[in-house]
Design a protein that fits this description.
The complex is a heterodimer of chains A (503) and B (474).
Chain A lengths: L1 H13 L2 H45 L3 H5 L3 E3 L19 E3 L29 H17 L4 H6 L1 H6 L5 H33 L7 H32 L2 H26 L7 H28 L15 E10 L4 E10 L9 H46 L3 H13 L3 H24 L31 H32 L3
Antiparallel strand pairs in A: 1-2, 3-4
Helix pairs in contact in A: 1-7, 2-4, 2-7, 4-7, 4-8, 4-9, 4-12, 7-8, 8-9, 8-12, 8-14, 10-11, 12-14
Chain B lengths: L2 H17 L2 H49 L1 H7 L2 E4 L19 E5 L3 E3 L2 E2 L3 E3 L19 H17 L4 H6 L1 H7 L4 H33 L7 H31 L3 H30 L5 H23 L6 H40 L3 H13 L2 H29 L36 H28 L3
Antiparallel strand pairs in B: 1-2, 2-5, 3-4
Helix pairs in contact in B: 1-7, 2-3, 2-4, 2-7, 4-7, 4-8, 4-9, 4-12, 7-8, 8-9, 8-12, 8-14, 9-11, 10-11, 12-14
The chains are: A mainly alpha (503), B mainly alpha (474).
Chain lengths: 503, 474
């Protein structure tokens, strides 16, 4: 009996105009947008490659180690799966300095730009956005008359006279409609995958396919939520026209209005001014303490005078300054010397300068690391925490949950982007270790080329690998689970209403 | 029965049906909620925006006055400083992607070739100051443009998808036509009925919105702004008509309301949600590509030539006219060369965007969005106008320096070199002020074209609906 029910429902759904229209529109939009998105990814990848080359060139142009530290920059490659959900991939900084003077964080990043930033005004559409808007609409269009239509036509009474259990009817309707809705979803995804794999710019590995599998899973859960919402409305409204109208408004509210309106209405988390001020104060004090030590060293060393440049003048340049940005708790001290062949003339000064920099290098690293211990939790409180509150507000709509879950799967959420900065910090540590190993802080190459230029060739190379799929799964699971739970709750409610309803 | 009484009756019946319906209630609630959100947000944020602008302008002018107090040479070297774009009071109508546009042009940053050897100022066009610190979720601004283009168009479809098909389904259409009511009267009646029923909640919500905004002391709307709001209202109604006509067209052709709605929703989704951005992305593929690297290569080429030509004068401390003139020529030609390159690059960027925008006009949504932006005084066209204002002012500023210098008989009239210029101080009041004005007569053609295009869409769809309805069998 159950099979007959499913068969009937399937046939009912498949032979409709809406099914054909759904398949057509999904294929059209997904294919058109995938082509555009691949082009866009290609452009960003080219931008990344140029940036990497530029960084290398600028670094190798520096002849001393101290001159080069400010040019130690690492870049974040675009995420190939951003085609599915672009998330923060294009919005947050994609290159950051890994100089020993500062522990880098997301808030110190820069953007290697495109050639026409004005083009960013045109919103980009990713595949998940298409699903978010269209799948939910399709689900409601399939669902609005599933119960109400049968009430109206009286066919439900007819079916129930055959001693069919009501639960079976509901389940049959649900399963068959979901099967029908999966057709456009999977077909369009399949086409998108074909385009992705045949394109020469994008190379996907096994993990990426698992991630895409996660996106599909989330999409099915999202689709099902909206189908069940439609079914619920259909069961409660009992008339198709009312059900349709309600469904459309619910859709408009959940997908269009709520995500855009809620952040305007929700209480704005106050920027924790005092937190910023106190943390910055602490950081400033540490650097002032560092500066006192530095001055003390200069005053007590064997060389007369307190000048840090030891009166050296020559072909090249030097700078020393501290700079800060209280709003993002940034404070650092940079100093560098880049001299070409000082020669015999400065034979007495050079050892003193070496001594000074041998003292200075580790001190700067130490202070930078100590301030990072304060800066890290403070940044968390000031920036991440309010953003998380906003995200929770958005997740009250299934569309927000779906967006968050897919972002986590493809790794374009904030956590995924922050992985890059974590990798950058590790790379900085590697560079520092390399400096220590080669004893560059006390070497002449640190500030002059008398004993040869700085050797950048054997510096550890940076390449950012996204974390494995387990991490993505761990981050996505809470949201996917909530989606699944909403499914179950909705189904139970529909079941209860349907059981008790009079036919 | 004369035709206008029939028309009145049909309209009235339609209106009555609609006003009692669920969709009318839901529409009213939805639009009110959106409009109130918009107003509250505006009165919360706009004063901050204005304050920020005023602070920036004051700071910039303070710097200018201190340069003027030094000497005319300082003005010629440092230039007018940062010039800011004035925020529009009608920001709540259309945000127009302002956060992705730069808010200033920099007229300053003379190049320091060496100590005691500084060039003259030039105009620089910085990129938008995108907030890389922000890790919160990104959402669209709920402005009138959003409410209109997305929500109101959807509502218009929901009010008309069953206008004719449901009457045909229930057989009442046959009844009506049997009473010798001409078909066009039925169509117009339906149209007017739906128009008024959508117009009522929208007008109500918009008036509440304006009431909140205008009673707040934080925002001041000038009579001219009210005039522009009137035009925006007209555009809103025209745009609603378009979707009503589309609904009637499909409803007239299709036998069943459910099918009619499915078609309409899919058309809506394609036109409203996807066409604008997809078309723009495709357009950007075909537009000429730019390269900032090529720009910098040309720049260094120019500089090399200048060095070869004037290099030997630059390190000389002689104060004779020849050295000074050579220095002047070097400084001004270098700055002019760089400014020209930057301007060319900007022009190319703007051309690329305008090309993309022209193509996206295939979707009426984009047309409406462009129109709203241009009447609200925000968005890309406004930015282009701001840049033109700045460029005009830059010319004015340079002329002012030359004229002031000419008035001083002791000066050698060699602009850009300290020793060659007037030593007198300049009264800050005498310096021309930068006025970022919004000129609506300019670009009138584009706007008129867009308005006509929108009207054309409405007319085509309405006549399509008429033809479809006349030919259909009841």
């Amino acid at each position: 009996m159950f099979k007959t029910l499913i068969g009937r429902e399937l046939l009912n759904n498949l032979m409709t105009f809406r099914f054909a229209a759904a398949v057509f529109i999904m294929l059209l939009l997904v294919v058109a947008n995938t082509v555009v998105l691949i082009e866009d990814y290609d452009r960003r990848l080219a931008g990344y490659n140029t940036a990497v080359k530029t960084h290398q060139r600028q670094l190798h142009a520096k002849k001393t180690y101290s001159g080069g530290t400010s040019k130690l920059v690492v870049a974040r490659p675009p995420n190939p799966l951003s085609i599915f959900n672009v998330g923060f991939d294009k919005r947050l900084g994609n290159e950051v300095s890994v100089s020993h003077t500062l522990v880098p964080s997301l808030w110190d990043a820069r953007m290697h730009g495109s050639d026409n930033p004005f083009m960013d005004m045109f919103a980009s559409i990713d595949i998940v956005f298409i699903f978010e808007v269209i799948l939910s609409l399709l689900a409601l269009i399939f669902a609005y008359d599933t119960l109400a239509g049968e009430y109206e036509q009286g066919t439900l009474r007819l079916v129930l006279t055959h001693s069919v259990r009501r639960g079976h009817i509901l389940l049959a309707k649900y399963i068959s409609a979901m099967l029908c809705l999966l057709v456009p979803l999977l077909m369009s995804l399949l086409l998108a995958m074909i385009l992705l794999t045949t394109s020469s710019v994008i190379s996907l590995n096994a993990d990426d396919f698992l991630r895409i599998g996660g996106v599909i899973w989330a999409s099915v859960a999202y689709l099902s939520v909206f189908y069940l919402i439609g079914m619920l409305i259909s069961g409660m409204a009992r008339r198709t026209s009312t059900a349709l109208m309600l469904s459309m408004f619910v859709w408009g509210f959940l997908v269009l209005v709520y995500p855009n309106m809620i952040l305007a209405v929700s209480p704005q988390p106050k920027a924790p001014q005092t937190r910023t001020a106190s943390a910055f104060n602490q950081i400033e004090q540490m650097w002032e303490e560092f500066d006192r030590e530095r001055k003390h060293f200069l005053a007590t060393d064997a060389f007369p005078g307190e000048e840090w440049d030891f009166g050296i003048k020559g072909w090249g340049g030097l700078y020393a300054y501290s700079w800060d940005n209280p709003s993002k708790l940034l404070y650092t001290y940079e100093s560098a010397m880049e001299f070409r062949d000082l020669g015999e003339q400065y034979a007495t000064e050079i050892p003193h300068t070496q001594n000074y920099f041998r003292f200075l290098g580790p001190r700067v690293i130490n202070t930078a690391e100590r301030t990072w211990l304060i800066r890290k939790p403070a940044l968390e409180d000031i920036f991440i925490h309010p953003a998380n509150v906003e995200r929770i507000w958005l997740k009250l709509s299934p569309a927000g949950l779906y967006d968050a879950a897919t972002q986590a799967w493809v790794g374009t959420d904030v956590l995924g982007i922050r992985d890059f900065f974590h990798a950058a910090r590790q790379h900085r540590q590697r560079v520092i270790n390399y400096f220590h190993d080669k004893k560059v802080f006390g070497s002449q190459q640190w500030f002059t080329t008398d004993e040869g230029a700085a050797d950048w060739g054997s510096l550890p190379q940076f390449s950012f690998q996204r974390l494995d799929v387990n991490t993505n799964a761990k981050r996505a699971l809470p949201d996917v689970c909530i989606l699944l739970m909403i499914n179950i709750v909705l189904f139970v409610i529909i079941f209860l209403i349907f059981i008790k309803s009079e036919v | 029965m004369s035709w206008h009484i029939t028309l009145f009756n049909i309209t009235w019946r339609e209106l009555y049906d609609n006003l009692n319906s669920l969709r009318f209630a839901l529409t009213t609630v939805l639009l009110l909620a959106l409009m109130v959100t918009n107003a509250v947000r505006h009165i919360r944020e706009h004063p901050q925006r204005i304050q920020k602008y005023h602070d920036a302008v004051t700071e910039s002018q303070g710097r200018l006055a201190s340069h003027a107090d030094d000497s005319l040479y300082m003005l010629a070297q440092r230039g007018p400083g940062y010039l800011y774009k004035k925020p529009s009071a009608l920001y709540f109508c259309a945000a127009g992607g302002e956060s992705l546009l730069p808010d200033r042009v920099e007229g300053g940053s003379p190049f320091g070739y060496a100590e005691d050897l500084t060039g003259v100022w030039k105009l620089k066009y910085p990129d938008a100051n995108i907030n890389l610190k922000r890790v919160g979720p990104d959402v669209t601004k709920v402005d009138w443009a959003f409410i209109l283009c997305y929500v109101l168009s959807l509502i218009a479809i929901l009010f008309t998808f069953d206008a004719l098909s449901s009457e045909r389904e229930s057989g009442t259409l046959r009844l009506m036509l049997a009473n010798a009511i001409p078909r066009h009267t039925v169509l117009i009646g339906k149209f007017l009925g739906a128009f008024i029923s959508v117009g009522i909640p929208f007008t109500l919500a918009a008036l509440v919105n304006l009431l909140i905004i205008s009673t707040s002391s934080a925002v001041h709307l000038t009579p001219e702004a009210w005039g522009r709001l009137g035009v925006i209202f007209l555009i809103a109604f025209l745009y609603t008509c378009l979707f009503l006509a589309l609904g009637l067209l499909v409803s007239a052709r299709v036998q069943r309301s459910a099918v009619s709605l499915v078609i309409l929703l899919l058309v809506w989704v394609t036109f409203v949600v996807f066409t604008p951005s997809t078309l723009a992305s495709i357009a950007s593929e075909f537009s000429p590509s730019l390269s900032s690297e090529a720009l910098w290569k040309r720049h260094s080429h120019i500089q090399d030539e200048l060095w070869n030509k004037y290099g030997r004068w630059l390190w000389s401390d002689e104060l004779d006219e020849k050295t000074l003139t050579a220095k002047r020529d070097f400084f001004t030609q270098d700055a002019e060369g760089e400014e020209r390159l930057r301007r060319e690059y900007l022009t190319q960027q703007i051309a690329q965007v305008q090309h993309a925008r022209a193509i996206t006009r295939a979707s009426p949504v984009t047309i409406a969005q462009h129109l709203l932006e241009s009447f609200a005084g925000t968005g890309f066209e406004r930015h282009v106008q701001f840049v033109e204002n700045v460029q005009r002012y830059a010319r004015q500023f340079r002329e002012f320096v030359v004229d002031t210098d000419r008035a001083d008989a002791q000066s050698l009239h060699i602009i850009g070199v300290r020793e060659g210029m007037s030593k007198k101080k300049v009264a800050p009041e005498a310096i021309p002020k930068f006025e970022d004005t919004l000129n609506f007569n300019k670009d009138f053609n584009t706007r008129a074209m867009e308005l006509l295009l929108l009207t054309l869409f409405v007319v085509v769809l309405l006549s399509g609906a008429y033809l479809a309805f006349v030919r259909v069998e009841v």
